[in-house]
Amino acid sequence: MAFASGLANTSLKYNSVGFYQMAKIAVTPTIVLAEFVVFRKTISFKKVLALVVVSAGVAVATVTDLEFSAFGACIAIAWIIPSAINKILWSNLQQQANWTALALMWKTTPITICFLVALMPWLDPPGLLLFKWDINNASAILVSALLGFLLQWSGALALGATSATSHVVLGQFKTCVILVGGYLLLGSDPGPVSLSGAVVALAGMSAYTLLNLKESKESSNKQIPMQDPVSKTKTSENGNEGSTVTNTTNEV
């Protein structure tokens, strides 16, 4: 968590937003590969095609500039693996170890803060005491901290309810909705290429969601046991015998 958050902010500092988006897209195949290596978890070929469509659409929609430095590129590449592993562990601990989102945050946040404090001199230049601490800036920091907590909590809930891959797709869905919503509601003009990429990405996300729902329905149907007709007949006979004994007892 500490490396995922710290390296992400540092990547934004030394790279353009477009290069940062490219690094975010690379998180999806990293998650798929890591889950296969660690948990032997595989996904269907149709899902792979849907994820390829999503990644390509998001790349066309959001990647407008690729300005980066050598140090920034190294930071972005180094951020991909901690980000993927962080999402996988959050999802796995909640689904397999029965942790709740808030309980897991309560256990991990203090340790994460210690790691962030140790990383701050390396990732951010010193200047905490040089910051202009007034009521407006302090209020802005507190509001940002509250929103960050809510963002982390909602992300943890999503990871516990879905999967690490679905969580990444959800984040890309948010990006596309902001792009298309700004064009439809606020009159912004990102350009036909970006809009086309967003539409393609949304189509891929819809296909990925439908495949997930189909697999979930099939797995739930497999878990419902089929009752044997012979057992059902025996149960009915036992029930009739029990009712006969009850009636005889009542008569006595």
Automatic annotation (TrEMBL):
Q: Where is this region: Disordered?
A: 219-252
Annotated membrane-spanning segments are 20-39, 48-64, 70-89, 101-120, 140-161, 168-186, 192-213
Q: Where in the cell is it found?
A: Membrane
The UniProt entry lists membrane topology as: Multi-pass membrane protein
Which of UniProt's keywords are assigned here?
A: Membrane, Transmembrane, Transmembrane helix
Q: Please give the name of this protein.
A: Sugar phosphate transporter domain-containing protein
- Where along the chain is composition biased (Polar residues)? 230-252
- Out of the domains of life, which is the source? Eukaryota
Q: Which residues form the Sugar phosphate transporter domain?
A: 3-208
Q: Pfam families from the entry? A: TPT
Enumerate the PANTHER family for this protein: SOLUTE CARRIER FAMILY 35 (PTHR11132)
